[in-house]
Amino acid sequence: MRILLVEDDAVLREVVARSLRDAGHRVDEAASAEEAGHWWRVQPFDAVLLDLSLPDVTGGPVQTASGLRVLRQARRLGNATPVLVLTARNRAEERIAGLDAGADDYLGKPFALGEVEARLRALVRRAQGVADQATLGRLTLDRKARRFSIDGQALDLPAREFEVLWELMTPPGHAVSKRTLSEKLSDLDEALGDNALEAFISRLRKKLAGSGASIRTLRGIGYLTEPELEPPGR
């Protein structure tokens, strides 16, 4: 997933961002309402993790209304990206305000890092209307466990290869453009080029050989996953 993390506390932002990146996600960070609004307008995300108490600009005074304003503006523009709001513990008014402004879920501080990722995954599954498991040949994607397996054996993949296959299997059989894959796997400081993407696809094809699942190139469009064709004569 590509996630926008909006949090003005630099220490907390770094800890959460590192946890999400270690789980294989691409994370872009914003420290103010101004930064959040900008990136949310110009870049598509799978989910947004939003602290409501934000400065309007980096270094400015913190205001709960700033986070709400960013959320309301995104919803007014028709942006339906799932949003997980972070709120202070026992602040019911913040939770209510966030949900009324268009948030999909909320999480009180302090929180467990694992719960952040689990809630984000659940929100994205709900938004995409996908089941918890997808199967193609002997390849299975378990979205709850965030795990691929072939015949029940876990498929060990580096983070970016995992994300490429995740996009192609959510759900299987749908075409994914190179641009979409590049956007999902890039962050604001590093763009993923076509050569790097093709290298990931090539390595994945070798790892999926014999699994009953394959990746097909659609010329001028992108890629899709489909049942592996049996060799002639079988």
Q: What does this protein structure show overall?
A:
This protein has 234 residues and is α/β, with parallel strands linked by helices. It has 8 helices and 14 strands. It has helices at residues 10-22, 33-42, 64-76, 92-101, 113-128, 159-168, 178-185, 194-208, and strands spanning 2-6, 26-30, 47-51, 54-55, 62-63, 83-88, 105-109, 133-136, 139-142, 147-150, 153-154, 176-177, 213-218, 222-227. The strands form 4 sheets. A 5-stranded parallel sheet has the order 2-1-3-6-7, sandwiched between helices. A 4-stranded antiparallel sheet has the order 8-9-10-11, with no helix packed on it. Strand 13 and strand 14 (222-227) form a beta hairpin. The chain is elongated, with a radius of gyration of 19 Å. It starts with a strand and ends in a 7-residue tail after the last strand. The mean pLDDT is 85.
